[in-house]
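Message: Study each token:
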Amino acid sequence: MNRHPGMLTGLFAASALALLAPAALAADVAAPAPSETSEPFVGTPVELSPWQVRIRGLGVITNDKGKINGVKGSDLSYSDSIIPELDITYFFTDNIAAELILGTTYANVYGEGSVKGLGRIGKAWLLPPTLTLQYHFTNFGAFKPYLGAGVNYTIFYGQDGHSVDKLDIENSFGFALQAGMDYMFDKHWGINADVKKIFLQPDFKVRSGGATLRGTADLNPWLIGGGITYRF
């Protein structure tokens, strides 16, 4: 009865293989091939866009100094304002970014010192686009401070004389320093606080009673703001 044990063993193995093969083939067909469009697994890092925007409320606080050339003891002061501001940031790396700051405001110009009797000399609108290069610190978790420095170019428009016939403030370059922080609630949304100092001293001229006077307005404003951050 046990003359052919090898034959029985081989016959049993072939039968088992025949039964298991369809199940293995079905499993291979049912398993989807990996796809680049598949949703990432939970915990997979999401790559962020290099673009970021902020909307801020901004206080513009000017330095009340200036002079009219040739008028001893002359001084100037300027009105402060609160304005909306948009800034756009591009991240070259996690740490290095460039930021373009956009907003517009106006300032009333007043005579002070020996020319205080002029009162409100006039009014001018300012468009001061500012570009800064920033370093962002990334080792504080959700708290992300940064420092920046850059250049400002202020365009003066809509200028009107009040106690003088004409006010003309010249467009001017200035140097900018910046410090701020974002606190991110998640990878996209956060809040921001920011302080900038712009070193801006444009020349101006006024015309009154047929005479033209020239001088320098030492604006040098502080820009103090806070708002909402969105990282794409």
